[in-house]
Amino acid sequence: MLNWDWDFTWTILPRLLSATVNTILAAGLGYAIAVVLGLVLALLQRTRSPIFTASVREIIEFVRSTPLVLQVFFVFYVAPQFGITLSPWVAGMLSIGVHYAAYLSEVYRGGIDSVPKGQWEAATSLNLSTTRTYFRIVIPQALPPSLAGMGNYLVGIFKDTPILSVIGVAELMHAANSIGAETYRFLEPYTLVGIIFLAISLPTAALIRAFEGWMRRKLGLT
Amino acid sequence: MSYFEFISQYGERILSGTLITIILTIIAAALAVSIALIAGLMRLSPNRFVRSVAAVYVEIFRGTSLLVQLYWIFFVLPLFGFTLEKFTAGFIAVGLNLGAYGSELVRGAILSVARGQWEAALALNMSGVQRMRRIILPQALLIMLPPWGNLMIELLKSTALVALIAVADLTFQAKQINSSTFLSAQSFGTALIIYYVVARFLITPSMRWLERFMARKMGEA
Description:
The complex is a heterodimer.
Chain A: H1 6-44, H2 50-64, H3 68-78, H4 88-113, H5 117-125, H6 130-160, H7 172-183, H8 187-218
Chain B: H1 3-42, H2 48-63, H3 66-76, H4 86-111, H5 115-123, H6 128-158, H7 170-181, H8 184-217
């Protein structure tokens, strides 16, 4: 029957909290990869070749419609067959980064599409190079409307980090699994993991919503 | 081993895993849709208590990871006296998780039905239930179908996590084949392609068909 053991709770809490640091680190690193790679994927869809654009879109579609856990397995187990042995952390960051890059590229694409046509024409008439047009004119204007979507995926990536425990990334879920295996107690570790996730993701989501509102007001959208 | 040999030897297991994944997806989807509808309507209830119960459910399931929820349901619920079979635990976790996301779609769609429709229903002296069932919900359904299509693909992907509690789905079979043969590219690659095909050529077209079907039924096409 159910009995919550407070002494046990206090013994495992430090271990779970230090694993939480790894979870946050994993989410941050994975997100950093996704933010950059997502932009690359969004820009690759804007080349003049329709075949190239279609293939990039199909690849994005593929990444978005297959499970992250399977992608993690694939990267971790297949890379050594090509002579590249990846540590769990590298394989984990790579797969979660690519997975979320596919999502973020869609967010950026929406942002870039929302930049008025006149801005492109103005840049052309000022004889700006393509690179300058993108980095000085288009992307700065595409970013604000993308921020809400970017924030949602930041929370999303954080909640997906437990999947990395399957290849042994020592994050929160991994720590809870080890505690469960060592002590045969599951109630406290798994419940605490849930509480820790809530304690981080709810305020972050609220913060992102507040930021979104502030941004909308600043841009005069409301 | 050539890929052809691989398929002739392990095709049957991959196929049975695919079948489990599809069945799991259908059951979890049915659960998610029903819960989303109930929780979405509860969040719009005039009663504050009903509203907060739904809000707590949505925040808990959207605020934590599906994997945490799955492990909690499978490993911790038995301590409360509810022992669930792993397949049941799997579809309940996936259904509850996606249902929380879906309830937001339901709520948003209901709120975006034009104001005049509510007023017209009121003017015709319809009861609250009648108004919701005959006027508001059908129109809300049309609004929320496209985002539900995305959610269904998320749901398919989510079912892969049940492999971690040893439900013999597609991901589980791929993992088993990999650990006995070390043919990682073949086993995981095949599974990835199957998920992609199911999502892109089974789920997406049927959701599109449903959208068109509903639009025709509503006389909007």
